[in-house]
Design brief:
Helix content: 10-25%
Structural class: mainly beta
Number of helices: 4
Strand content: 35-45%
Number of domains: 4
Largest sheet: 6 strands, mixed
Length: 487
């Protein structure tokens, strides 16, 4: 069994004093506890519902006090007073105890201790409200407890199609170059840079997603600025494919053919269209023949080809001379180019006619009737007298006055006049019964008389021996309308 250690008397006194102080302290603590116990439960419940009730809270601190003890002198002389005696004395001394005072509970301030503190301040950053100690109620875009800015762009919930830009308490969307924000301010719509003229393309503009590029039309090359274009000289080399000549144009070119050639459907190759060239072709010639034929010589034409092609030349006369009878003749030369079949022709006419006679006179008081067709081949004339006039007895109405190849009239000209008046007593002497058909009663200027005379002429010519062939040969022209009547 452990014995309780006995203290010295002065230590016993101190122990006693501390016990009294301890009892006082315990009394104060118990009193305070009994008073604060309900408040503590209310605080706990308030914190549970995020509604802390503010109040005063006791606050302890170390404070000093003067502890009074009794001073007592005594002496101690050792065991059985055999030793030297010493004198002792107890002094006053300072002791420490726990003191309590009323103060605001932790997290509150103010005269009523009902203003909460958040991180030592009655307000929160970025417009937040300090609702409870160290608990801020923050505006949209900021997060509790410190109302720090929320980076809405850190995830994908922002909905921006291209870029997200964070701001204090919010964010906004931006688009890449070449796009603009749509009406929802999140999606991006491509800008058609080619819709205006600001693109700067000299020729064509091609829009792309978020950008554009310039192009040059066929026949042009882009310059180093990728906007302007330079014409390609397609004629500078041989790739143009032109058979003859190449002509450059802005953005293109075209082929041309030399003289005498025609471009083909491919517009590059050429076809020779040059016919043979003719020089020295004779003009038409009119020849008067004193006989029934005449010999005529002419100069042959000359044919050449500038392209150097071979020519085939043919003619309807083997040599440049021929003996022609009366009539019309065509002399023809044809040159054909063997490379393309083109032809050039030289033709001229040789007209051979009898030598013409002098104009035959018109009888007085009578009419001269001649052929009015093919007069260059010959003239066949007869006379008629007006009534009451006749020709002399030595003349005959049956005589034909003909101009042949010799250029002279047969019978001889001039024709006799109707100068002999007809009296009844001389009728048998001057009038032959057959002459009745060669007399006209009224003026030959009269249409009826002229028509009668023309009809008589055709009838007599068709019956004339040796001359009727002139009417049968030119039957279509041997008509009364073609009879030449002169009075």
């Amino acid at each position: 069994m452990i014995k309780k250690k006995e203290l010295p008397k002065y230590e016993l006194f101190i122990h006693f004093k501390n016990k009294i102080v301890k009892e006082k302290i315990e009394t104060i603590v118990n009193y305070t506890y009994n008073i604060m116990k309900p408040l503590m439960w209310i605080m706990i419940l308030g914190l549970s519902f995020r509604d802390v009730c503010a109040d005063y809270c006791p606050q302890s601190n170390a404070c000093s006090t003067t502890c009074q003890v009794y001073s007592r002198y005594y002496r101690a002389c050792g065991f059985l007073w055999l030793d030297r005696c010493s004198r002792y004395r107890v002094h006053y001394y300072t002791c420490y105890e726990t003191c309590y005072k009323q103060a605001c509970c932790t997290g509150y301030t103010g005269s009523s201790c009902n203003t909460p503190l958040c991180d030592g301040s009655t307000s929160c950053p970025n417009g937040g409200t300090c609702r409870y100690p160290d608990y801020c109620v923050c505006p949209t875009g900021f997060s509790a407890p410190g109302c720090n800015d929320i980076d809405e762009c850190s995830g994908t919930s922002h909905g921006c199609q291209h870029y997200c830009r964070n701001t204090a308490g919010s964010y906004y969307c931006t688009c890449r170059a070449g796009y603009v924000r749509s009406y929802d301010l999140k999606a991006c719509t491509d800008i058609d840079e080619c819709s205006g003229i600001s693109h700067g393309c000299q020729q064509d503009c091609r829009n792309t997603a978020g950008s554009y590029y310039c192009t040059c039309r066929a026949g042009y090359l882009p310059n180093s600025d990728l906007k302007t274009c330079t014409d390609i000289d397609e004629c500078s080399g041989t790739s143009h494919g032109c058979q003859h000549d190449c002509r450059n144009t802005p953005g293109s070119y075209y082929c041309t053919c030399r003289a005498g050639y025609l471009p083909n459907s491919d517009l590059k190759t050429c076809t020779d269209i040059q016919p043979p060239v003719l020089t020295g072709c004779s003009e038409d010639v009119h020849i008067n023949a004193t006989g029934h034929t005449v010999q005529y010589n002419w100069t042959e034409p000359i044919f050449t080809d500038p392209m150097g092609s071979v020519l085939e030349i043919v003619s309807n006369y083997p040599s440049p001379e021929f003996t022609f009878p009366w009539g019309d003749y065509t002399v023809q030369y044809v040159a054909t180019k063997t490379s393309n079949g083109l032809r050039t022709e030289c033709s001229f006419q040789v007209k051979v006619r009898p030598t013409p006679c002098e104009e035959l006179n018109v009888p007085v008081n009578g009419a001269r009737l001649c052929n009015g067709w093919k007069t260059d081949y010959g003239r066949f004339c007869m006379i008629m007298c007006q009534q009451n006039y006749t020709i002399g007895p030595a003349q005959s109405y049956y005589t034909w006055h003909v101009c042949g190849a010799s250029g002279n009239w047969i019978a001889a000209s001039p024709v006799p006049d109707c100068s002999v008046p007809v009296a009844y007593e001389y009728e048998e002497e001057y009038y032959h019964p057959g002459y009745a058909g060669y007399v006209y009663s009224s003026s030959c200027e009269d249409d009826a008389t002229r028509n009668t005379l023309q009809t008589l002429y055709i009838d007599y010519l068709k019956e004339a021996e040796g001359f009727s062939s002139f009417c049968s040969t030119y039957e279509s022209e041997c008509t009364k309308e073609n009879v030449d009547v002169k009075c």
